[in-house]
Amino acid sequence: MTNLLELYVKLGGLVLVGFILGRKLPMTVPTYLGQFLYWVGVPISIVSFLRQSSFSGQIWIAPAIAYLAILLGGFLAWLGIKGQAYFRNTVTQAPTQASLILAAMLGNTGYLGFPITLAMVGKEYFAWALFYDLLGSFPGTYGLGVFIAARFGGGVQNHWQTARAILINPALWSFGFGLLFRQATIPTVAEFWLEKFAWSMVALSLMLIGMRLALLKSWRSLPQVGMSLGIKMLLVPLILGSILPVFGLTGSTAKVIVLQMAMPPAFATLVIAETFNLDRDLAVTALAAGAIVLLVTLPIWLWLF
User: Fold this and answer.
1) What is the pLDDT of residues 76-106, one digit of tens each?
2) Each residue of 155-167: pLDDT tens digit?
3) Computed from CA positions of residues 226, 229, 231, 233, in that sequence, does the dihedral angle turn out positive or negative?
4) pTM for the whole structure
5) Angle at 284 (CA atoms; ends 84, 77), nearest 5 degrees
6) Other CB atoms within 10 Å distance of the CB of residue 87
């Protein structure tokens, strides 16, 4: 309980600082901060934390579980949409259907999942969260997520641009470099400052979430969002979390995977919604409501697993 309270104070405090700054600073600041984290901060942090992480022979299961979670979330959301249409005799517009499905599929396993994993499970198991995000959530988001958006939305996307965005993602390149750099010997002082820089980037990532939440103003889609959040943050982690022992995942490794599965909808859902003319208001509401719901669901997963 002490660790959880400490987590809420640290995470909540940093997000709150970011929220306040987001209301005071120019709207360009979150954009520039996001670009800095994307191109510099997060990649260097990945290299640092990989040096301190423990690898096991089963770690490649992490992205496979991520794909299962994405597919299960999408399937359950599709069933929910069809069920609403059958029992209520109402047809949800295609762009709204896509936003509902994406919110149930794609989780914030990076900016939010990383710091929560580090705080609650420790650096030793961080590689599991990293494999889940970079080899599972990320390609799932910009692969299947973009495919669904293109299928339901009205936007036209250049598929080469999508592939290019994936290939030049600096986090993926730093992940590969970090794997090679793990065994390299560097001066103690360099190791010290590398770790300090990495934790500073975690803090800035949380502040960025607060800044972006400060810019979210719409709540009118909350009733519809409830279904997606229930699937994403309750049903999927409960169903797949209960079968993790079948894959040989128990203890802290299972906790990391469950925490990643239980993260609220990703900010990428809003980016995709804007790109493909989906239901932007619903995507915005899912982000804000999901961050609040996490405060309630996080103790549940820590207790169960």
Assistant:
1) 999 999 888 777 766 678 889 999 999 999 9
2) 545 667 666 666 7
3) negative
4) 0.85
5) 30
6) 8
